[in-house]
User: What shape does this take?
Amino acid sequence: MPQQVRAVVARKVKSPVEVVTIAVPDPAAGEALVRVQACGVCHTDLHYRDGGINDEFPFLLGHEAAGIVEAVGDGVTSIGPGDFVILNWRAVCGQCRACRRGRPWYCFATHNASQKMTLDGEALSPALGIGAFAEKTLVAAGQCTKVDPAVAPEVAGLLGCGVMAGLGAAMLTGEVGPGDSVAVFGCGGVGDAAIAGATLAGATTIVAVDLDARKLEWAREFGATHTVDAGACDPVEAVREITGGYGADVCIEAVGHPEVFEQAFFARDLAGTLVQVGVPTPDMRIELPFIELFGRGGRIKPSWYGDCLPSRDFPMLVNLHLEGRLPLERFVSETIALDGVEEAFVKMQRNEVLRSVVVF
Assistant: This one.
């Protein structure tokens, strides 16, 4: 029997979201029903609302979440009722060409629930296959990663998207190591997570680059050793000066803008690495001198979800947080009710918060 729950839905492009009652089916084979305890308000949700992902309205928003498994369908053995889980949007299939090559963090055929949640009989499109701005949600069992229940749900859920993307951009995609120099361009939630990841990985020089003084102050709290106001100087020259005239070993672009990408490209040391984790829009283009691409060497690496493997990385990062080595709680600017999502989007656009988190 489908359950009736409150949820946040975007009915039309760029229209304010609504709190409505939706129907959530009982889990079928391979699925899990999760009672959501907390869900972060991510830029991706705003992109869905504004039509920046696709036009498959209505959308059930929310994806950066943690909660308790209430029921599972036939054949599910990895989790069970009562388990505390972080929801992820990389439920690896084990069969695609990436998985067969031993690179499941690139899985090209991740699992989602086969059944649809509905609004007045109309199928909803869940954000990133999750749809967690809801009291309960239906997901594929592989989208549930069991972690230590001692962690606060409003903190744990952040690993489901933005914070994991930033941590992984530094630690996994960028392969930051002890003694490295790192420059992070864009110090919102993802950028600050990249700074935290670089700190964990042992980088000794971490340069935060942004236009907003408040964001640069936040970056210091996550481990930045230097800050650069990109509106007051040439950020490329500033990064080079801080790194002895050479440029950073790893530059991380966390904005998703061609001009910022170019700055990060030229702020690298020779043979350095550029990680691009900021999400661009489809109309953006990059133009670089071809000889510079060749002559500077190194690597340019887009980072999908921080190249994470949730089953491996979520428990490890939760444990680091519980040990006091990863300050995830600093990302939570405020906790809000379900009806506060639209206002949280406004605060996000004004750069007033790192993360607003819906708690149930």
Notes: The chain has a mean pLDDT of 97. The radius of gyration is 20 Å.
